[in-house]
Amino acid sequence: MAALADGDAAYSSLDSDDEYEKFIQKMNPPRVTIDNTSCPNATVIHVDSANKYGVLLEVVQVLTDLKLIVKKAYISSDGGWFMDVFNVTNQGGHKIMDESVLEGIKDCIYKSIGPDSCLLPSRRRAIGVEPSSDYTLIELTGTDRPGLLSEVSAVLTNLECNVVNAELWTHNERAAAVMQVTDRKSGLAISDAERLGRIKERLCNVFKGRSRDAKTTVAMGITHTERRLHQMMLEDRDYDRHDKDRASGSPTSMVSVVNWLQKDYSVVTIRCKDRPKLLFDTVCTLTDMQYVVFHGSVDTEGPDAYQDYYIRHIDGSPVNSEAERKRIIHCLEAAIERRVSEGLKLELSTGDRVGLLSDVTRIFRENGLTVTRAEVSTKGDKAINTFYVRDAAGSSVELKTLEAIRQEIGQTVLQVKGHPDQPKSLTQESPTRFLFSSLFRPRSLCNLGLIGS
Questions:
Q1: How would you list the strands of the sheet with 344-351, edge to edge?
Q2: Residue 17: its pLDDT value, please?
Q3: pLDDT tens, 78-112?
Q4: Which residue positions does the secretion signal occupy (predicted)?
């Protein structure tokens, strides 16, 4: 995100190249066709267009954002032409039969890679940033620790900020967050430079780690959150860890990189347990590392995922050193692991109000829980949040701790997903108890050293 602060001057030299690319795209507009007859258990999407760096990620990003499951994929982009086939299903594993939905898929893909899509090689376009006055965008990276999200949300509440949407990832003792906030009183983006500087300074103090500096960015705009989180954690080198730590950890994936000398490609092979958005995560990482996928195949019809990519660096060269080969492997392993949800899943659904996130995460912290991943969203006047939690030692959460938290927050407000010892039926109570009691419960921000007394 720091690169965005450099202004438009860094991209001015690309104008002539951009105009040429637009001309090529208009002369060779993309074609998107959808076939529901050739495959018995999936809808087949064909995408053909002039080849361009990043076009594969654009298409995969659209499919992921539309919540489609890619069961198989065939990728080919030699000779300046991009030809991909995706076998997809809906979340239930069925074909997409609704014609209006199918037309919507075609329209989204076309807009993403068509002649008016502004598919430029700049970092600005790559993360989808456009000016916006709806909210202020905050990005944070630093050392992970128990209670981090609680401290961040408490500081924002104290600074008269309302968290509209947010996502937090943690991996390998690192943390990254993208948050969309507004002014508490006006409900608009915060534009005062002095106030933005104060917010940045306070949050940077919270995110400071022992071994690496924290990074905090406050700006106007919108971004593709998951894409940006991958970029932030890659820049923060969350893939770095000692070889002994790799050996002692349980392997969750198998990644290999070998050179095919006859064709001047490097072949990346990935074998791991399948999960939603895995294809997006691996393609996103290869693209952000400036590699181009010339050919590839994906198969996820069983419990495991099989991905093979024939790649070259953006300068046209295959992998040419052992250090580069290891870096690709470690970065892809990190991309696979980042979204793997460590901890117990808790879902909160209640009426939205300022300070809600601060109150909920404070209760987690006071009961010894740490948040490993979080998705915070606001739809209308309702807050819909998902947290993955574990205890401070990294172990599973005890049932008595969960019940204590649910008694404090509200049985109907906070739902537990998948705890092995959870009773099938639990006493339900009104959510109003939490909504009122949390407003008056004393907070210990002064003890945390986050604000003045």
A1: 215-220, 136-143, 174-183, 161-171, 369-379, 382-391, 344-351, 414-417
A2: 55
A3: 777 889 999 999 999 999 999 999 999 999 999 99
A4: none
Cα distance between residue 439 and residue 306, in whole Å: 50
Q: What span, in angstroms and rounded, lies between the C-alpha atoms of 131 and 361?
A: 31
Task: Using alpha carbons, select from 225, 229, 217 the residue that is nearest to residue 136.
Answer: 217
Residue whose pair of structure tokens reads 């793997």 in the numeric block: 340
Q: Are the C-beta atoms of residues 300 and 278 closer than 8 Å to each other?
A: yes
Q: Is 47 helix (H, G, I), strand (E, B) or coil?
A: strand
Indicate yes or no: pTM above 0.85: no
Count CA atoms within 13 Å of residue 122 on its CB side.
22
382-439 pLDDT, tens digit per residue, is: 999 999 999 888 788 998 999 999 989 987 888 888 665 554 444 344 443 443 334 3
What SS3 state is found at 163? strand
> Which among 287, 308, 338 is the end of a domain?
338
Q: What is the DSSP letter of 249?
A: S
Each residue of 334-371: pLDDT tens digit? 999 999 877 899 999 999 998 999 999 999 999 999 99
Q: What gap in Å lies between CA 186 and CA 161, rounded to an integer? A: 10
Number of other residues whose CB lies within 10 A of the CB of residue 353:
14
Roughly what angle, to the nearest 10 degrees, separates helices 99-113 and 55-65? 150
Together in a domain, 331 and 346: no
Domain-located, residue 96: yes
Beta strands 136-143 and 174-183 are antiparallel
Pairing of strands 382-391, 414-417: unpaired
411, 427 Cβ separation under 8 angstroms: yes
Q: Which domain holds residue 370?
A: 136-238+342-417
Amino acid type, 394: G
- Cα distance between residue 389 and residue 397, in whole Å: 8
CA distances from 344 to 101, 203, 222, 267, 370 (A): 34, 27, 30, 36, 11
Burial class (CB in 10 A: 0-12, 13-18, 19+), 71: buried
Rg (CA), the chain: 23
The per-residue pLDDT for 94 is 96
Tokens (6 digits) for 252 = 């969750």
User: Which residues on neighbouring strands pair with residue 168, listed in sequence order?
Assistant: 177, 374
Q: Which amino acid is at 447?
A: N
Same domain as 329, residue 207: no
Measure CA 20 to chain center.
32
| Cβ-based neighbour number of residue 94 at 10 Å | 12
In a domain, 257, yes or no: yes
172 with 307, same domain: the answer is no
* Separation CA 175–CA 140 (nearest Å): 8
